[in-house]
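Ticket #4471: structure output looks truncated?

Reporter: J.K.
Steps to reproduce: submitted the chain below (509 residues) through the standard prediction queue, then opened the result file.
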Amino acid sequence: MTTAQVAADHARIAARRPGALAATVLRTRSVHAREVLAEVAWPGHTPADLAGWAGLGPEAGLPPGADPRGVADHARVLAVQLGPTPGDTSDVDVARNLLEQLARSAHRSELQGGHREMLAQLRVLGGDAEGALRLVDGGDVRPGVAASVRADAANPHLVPGSDPHAWAAAFSAALGSGRLAPVAAPQPGHLPDLDHLRVQDPQSPVRAAGRGRVTVLMSCFRPGVELLTAVRSVLSQTWQDLELFVVDDASGPDDGEREALLDQVAAADPRVRVVRKAVNGGTYRARNTALRLASGDFGIVVDSDDWWHPQTLETCLAPLLSQPGLLATRAEGVRVTPDLVLTRPGYQPRFPSAATVLFRLRPVLNRIGFFDPTRKEPTPSSPDGWRPPSARPCTTSRRPPPCCAGDRCPCPRRSSRTATGTRRGTSTSRSTRGGTQRSGRAPAGPFWTRRSHDDFPSRCAGLGPATLCWSPNGTWTWCWRATGVGTVALRHRWSRRSGPRAALVSGWG
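Returned output as attached by the reporter:
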């Protein structure tokens, strides 16, 4: 059986559920499945044929006999599947040309919301700011994507000559930082740059000695100058009662620049302690080294290429200080480039981030111990490298259920998901296998969702932090919170050294 016959057979199956094939290809990252997508988009043709047609330019229109929805799905996969590859934009160019052909054809109404978003993102990254703004202003684009496109349409790196003050306002709006100091425009003669990002009128320092010391854990391996950006942003926090452990994970010998960099970090502030490990053990072992030295009441992990808004710790700590039963707060993330470009084709700018949990240090360590050192990368069910102690269903009790700890609780529950702002509501209750779960202040409206799967990873993946809530009947129970108040931290999407980096947004309700 030939490849064309296999593709045709699978295309007939895919026709029963339009859209499912593209989602499956993106999830599995199967490059070979593009043959099936091409068969659906243009029967009897291959991905190379579609690429050749796309090379004719946007004015060529759709290929004769092509399916508009299939062409749009094929373009979506090309733009997203393999991610950005420095120096190779062939897939992205083909994707944009196919979408442009569809947008200018008589079948433009076949462009669904996701396809319109994709085209707007590809346009703004390609320098066509006006075309991108026409799409987002025309509706059917999610607010987060629209805001990021508007911000990037004003970014001087993408659109030379743009007003830096207009960019700063649009960038702050995209991050939803209304309750935090907004981002400041770059200095005259400079372009937006993460390493020199500032905010307008930062608040006065909040000392609050004795109210809650924060231990900040930072591991690094062969760090560059971005380490200084991360350290400066931590030391610039309005919440001053903190200690910062920078653990060098046995970076090895160099020409002396790295040692000089670490010495500079150590001399930056008395609150900084640099630990040099003799044997490389990975980021989680490095974090455990810092945890053993920690003296704080709360703990949080920051990567060595992050940037924190000056009000990060103050904002994240507020609910923990006012609610003794609250175990942790969690943040959202925003991926940016070193030039502070927000747009990432196929994605919203903000996402729930597993790397931004601010937690009560001793209760968490006493219950579940240190980070699991056997993993190189976090898993969806244990996003911060912690290993759940059990998989029992939890019940309502007057003390924290034994199976619940931070993000690792495997029990079925409801989750509150909001992109920005604070949502409030009334108490709710529902039945679980272990009894009735209640929460005193549940978000109103359609923000409760039910996880019905019984397998552990699917029940924990992507949920917000566990929160200990006081219910009207006088009992404690764990619920999930994921509300936002604005951007507090940024990470590069693309490292100067080796790979992707990200940005973070904190929130509490």
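Triage note (M.O.): checked the attachment and the full token line is present. Residues 379-383, 387-487, 493-509 have pLDDT under 50 and may be disordered.
Status: closed, working as intended.
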